[in-house]
Amino acid sequence: MSQEPVQIPAHIDEPPYVMFWRLDEVLPIGIGLVAGVLLAQLILCTVAGLVLARFYRRYCDNRPDGYLLHAIYWYMGAISGKHTRIMPNSYERDYI
To answer: Contact, 33 vs 42, CB < 8 A?
Structure first.
């Protein structure tokens, strides 16, 4: 019985990409485009999205990958409004 080797991807934890850019860098531009169409200020909102994406890239260049998502989870409580700065006991099986 011969087994074939398993192919392991080289970049398993890479964030999703849109063309050449990471998805989180493209989102401010896309949000600016949508807001510009809805507000009838396409050029102004697109430029604001581009500027916001540039500042976001500068902010994230000096920090580890996924820093902003971890900060949002830590400070905003996973977007639910709850404070999640404590971890539940791992041995406790019944959560109320």
So the answer is: yes
Local confidence band at 85 (pLDDT 50, 70, 90 cut-offs): low
Tell me which residue has tokens 């994406």: 53
Q: Both tokens of residue 22?
A: 């990471």
**Measured distance CA(63)–CA(35) in Å, rounded:** 29
Q: What is the DSSP string of 48-94?
A: HHHHHHHHHHHHHHTS-TTHHHHHHHHHHIIIII----SPPPTT---
**Which pLDDT tens digit goes with each residue over 16-71?**
778 887 877 888 888 899 999 999 999 999 999 999 989 988 888 888 877 777 77
Q: What are phi and psi of 53, to 5 degrees?
A: -65, -35
